[in-house]
Give the backbone structure.
Amino acid sequence: MSEKRIKITLKKSPIGYSERQKKTVRGLGLKRLYHSRILRDTPAVRGMVDKVSHLVEVEEVD
């Protein structure tokens, strides 16, 4: 049984947003525009994505 994963892509720059949101983007491992990471779908990751949902795009990955 494999664990669920999600692909997170930074679609909008965090410049001009709060320091907390910038740190959340960095905490997700996103370093530059259109950079993507595949992460485990955990409540912690989902919470971080919810806080910066206006900056990122999320896709389900098999």
Summary: The mean pLDDT is 95. The chain has one domain: 5-61. The chain is about 30% helix and 25% strand. The radius of gyration is 11 Å.
